[in-house]
Amino acid sequence: MLNNRKETIDRDEISLAELIVHKNFTFKLLVTKVNGSLVKKDQRSEVLIHDGDEVNVLHMISGG
Predict the structure, then answer these.
(1) What's the pLDDT tens digit per position in 41-51?
(2) Where are the domains positioned within the chain?
């Protein structure tokens, strides 16, 4: 699941960083969670996503 939608990726596993590139998430401020756990930006390449994992990628927008 990615952002509450079923997603299919043709790989056995993918890192969170690779998923962000694959899905073309280009916002500078992203909050990422895998299975309910917050994943910091510097840890995204180390966190592997497998079939059945729940992934949330939220973009933060600031302005005045």
Answers:
(1) 999 999 999 98
(2) 13-59
CATH topology of domain 13-59: Ubiquitin-like (UB roll) (3.10.20)
Is the model's pLDDT at 62 over the cut of 80? no
pLDDT band at 64 (very low <50, low <70, confident <90, very high): low
This prediction's pTM: 0.85
48 in Cβ contact with 15 (< 8 Å) = yes
